[in-house]
Amino acid sequence: MKKIILLLIPFLLCGCSHDMNRKEIDEINFIHVLGIDFSDNEYTLSALYSTGGGTDPQGESAIEEVSNGTGKTPYEAYEDLVLKNRKAITLAQTGFFLIGDRAAETGLKLCLDFLSRDQTIKMESLVYIIKDEKAADFINKGIENKQLIHEDLETIKQKQKQIVTRNDNNLVNILNEMKQKYSGILIPYLIAEEKIFLIEGYAVFDQLKLKDYLDSETSSGVDFIKNIIRTYPIYLEDQADLSISYSDTNLKSELDNKNIKITIKINFETMINEVITEENIFSPEVLLELTERQNKFVKGIVEKAVNYTTATGIDILQFARLIENQHAKDWRNLEADWSENILDIEYEYVLNSKIVKSFILD
Amino acid sequence: MDITINSQVIKELFSKSSDVLVRPIKINQNDITFHIFCVDGLINTELVDIAILQTLILDPHLSECRTERKVMDYLLDGGAYHVFAIEEADYNLVLKYVLSGMVAFLFDEEQKAIVYDVRMFEKRSIQEPAEEGVMKGAKDAFIEVMRMNTALIRRRIRSEYLVVEALSAGKISKTDFALVYISNIANLDTVKKIRDIINNINIDNISTPAFIEEYLVENKKSIFPQIMYTQRPDRVSANLSDGRIALVVDGMPFVYLLPCQLPMLMQTPEDYANHFYIGSFLRIIRYVSMIITLFLPAFYIAATTYQNQMLPVKLALSIQQAKLKVPFSSSTEVLVLLIAFEILIEAGLRLPKTVGTAMSILGGLVIGQSAVSANLLSPAVVVIVSIAGISGFIMPNQDLSSGIRLSRFLLAILASIGGFFGLVVGLIIFITHLCSLDNYGVAYMSPFVDVEAGNHKDTLFRFPIKYFRKRPNKIVPENREKQN
């Protein structure tokens, strides 16, 4: 009994000193999507939450509502949002953070700092950049188009998982990447087409500020180098369309004084999805030719990502981290001039592939 | 004070009891009269008449017996046909024998009696166990007659080492006990301890199981069963050969097993009747159910009132929408429904079977559905409490089930006060309490807390029988070999 009392004392003390955030589930508005914008020296947060629907079969179908809060910092805007809401709000169920173009240009640090300090936040929430647009406009456009925004974003998340093996744009990953001194950060950007949202590629951040948007192919090149490709279509003109079923990338760095050489070795397997020629593409000679063509295709994509790094000096492929890991001692000499060294890296590509399945139904 | 055996004294003692018979019997013409002393309804009258009295009356050799002593010797030497016949001079013992259903012939001059065991009273036939039924396995169950129960055990263990020790307790009831164990396996220190406890029971009447259990249980404040009961002779025999000790009580249709540990309460005979994969699966289901019944209501309260971030978005939304029109807090809803559930169970037990079924439908379905429609309860709470309730009934032992049902109230209250923090505090108290229990020198949580790997082969998983090579070392210190 004494033990039980001893165990209960701290519990009761905690209970007495604080209400322990007691709040009934129906007294809270769960923010599903939070948009962060910056304009006129003010941050605006747009919170999207659902009302109606649920398990009640006779209930109204889910309706999404948006409320806004403004302030000089994102946190001030959040406090404003809290004040303006009829119910308590929480970020505990927020699955998506949309950062508007201007807010991203102003800097990721301030946008995400208050989120990283919220103890209820879901670290696997995904962050997206809204290309050339405010997040609030993007959300409102969706509502006007009668889209269920958080469900559409959920679909995008699922589609991402079909293409790549992991979603690197989750909050915890981005917060970690923000600590990297020499590497650029890549966050997928969204565009709104008629009644649907699409991911086109990555938004590039240098020094935590939005610099550029990568096109679709360059972004895929990044995915190849990051070794997160799950599947990818390869279109070989006049012959066949294939899709990658397995891919494995290995990066190896070599140092000779200050000369850096990075070998990008990609092994992948493809399946033939469509034959668009009359010739027999399954003869050994043609298959060999197809293999070479698909190697060239992938190399072209990868080169785009590498060339972007070389052209801009932004380490979007995180080569700094690669060299630091593989040559810890030499990295100290390279570190200081990394912005120059990155421009002079020599690249070698080794691509091995095979076509494994054709799926012909006889 | 020593009282001598005398028919007149006994007659006066039972002068107001119409069922007690003290009647003189004259033997031939020798003027030797003895008294037959028995309780009507407890004896087999036919047996007394035909096998004993008729023989006595018609036997010509009896006329040669000129004294009571000679008559007694003749009877004991086979003059009356009955297998159980003893001479007794102790007045109290004679009373005890007769009141338990034997017949005594009182010889006043000799101040002695001859007692014949002719007990036969109305009893239930051996039926299927009501609580521990199995599809594949023996269907016999204990009944209220102790001797029949010991016979059921003896039928399964034909070993000369099986000891059935007779004990008695209860100042008025003088209830018979049988302490059953296998003498070359069981820990004799434990046997002695149990024997001493029973001998020291100083109560008038042992009318309900609690009168025995509370004496035998070491930690009386715990709500968890520390003594196992079973209706199944096969289960008793299995536990006896594992070194446990059985206690058969006259008048109770089950047998106690000691020492008792928690994993034992989670096992059923069916575990061993099925393939070991299926047996293990069923056992895991039982443990999962225990966790569900214990923690699900508390988890729901904590998740909906404090840490809603624990819930997946869609589930949180569903619960939120379902609860919007309900005027009560989640903790009130859950606690009220848990109490309502207990009321339904109690009502179901007390009502006649025919009304009970209708009541279950009315209580469970109609009131439940109406409460949801009237927005007094959210459907999620009904589902949660129903799942927790059903899971609670999967426990093979009803005492354990009751203990867990009570514990889930405590956890639900703690979760209402402190969310997951309260739940964790409750969990710590729960585990600390279980780990602190000790049952006749064996930890209640044994073999979970045992170091010896061999003891774990019949806990969460039921290993193939060939691996059951040794008896649990905590229960049986010596003679542990089960199979080579």
Description:
Helix content of chain A is 37%, strand content 32%. With 362 residues, chain A is of the alpha/beta class. Chain A folds into two domains: 24-213; 221-357, Nutrient germinant receptor protein C, domain 3 (GMP Synthetase, Chain A, domain 3, 2-Layer Sandwich). In chain A, helix 8 (216-225) crosses helix 9 and helix 10 packs across helix 11. The longest helix of chain A has 29 residues, at 284-312. In chain A, 35% of the residues are buried. The mean pLDDT of chain A is 88. Chain B has 484 residues and is an alpha+beta fold. Chain B has three domains: 7-116, no CATH class; 146-260, no CATH class; 272-439, no CATH class. In chain B, the strands form three sheets. Chain B has a five-stranded antiparallel β-sheet, with helices on both faces. Chain B has a five-stranded antiparallel β-sheet with strand order 6-7-9-10-8, sandwiched between helices. In chain B, helix 5 (146-156) crosses helix 8 (233-241), helix 11 (276-305) runs antiparallel to helix 15 and helix 13 (330-350) packs across helix 15 (379-392). Chain B starts with 6 loop residues before the first helix and ends in a 41-residue tail after the last strand. The mean pLDDT of chain B is 87.
**What is the number of E strands of chain A?**
14
Low-confidence stretches of chain B: none
- Can you summarize the main beta sheet of chain A? 8 strands, mixed
| Principal-axes shape call of chain B | elongated
Portion in helices of chain A: 25-40%
Distance between the termini of chain A: 76 Å
- How would you classify the quaternary structure? heterodimer
> Could you tell me the mean pLDDT of chain A?
88
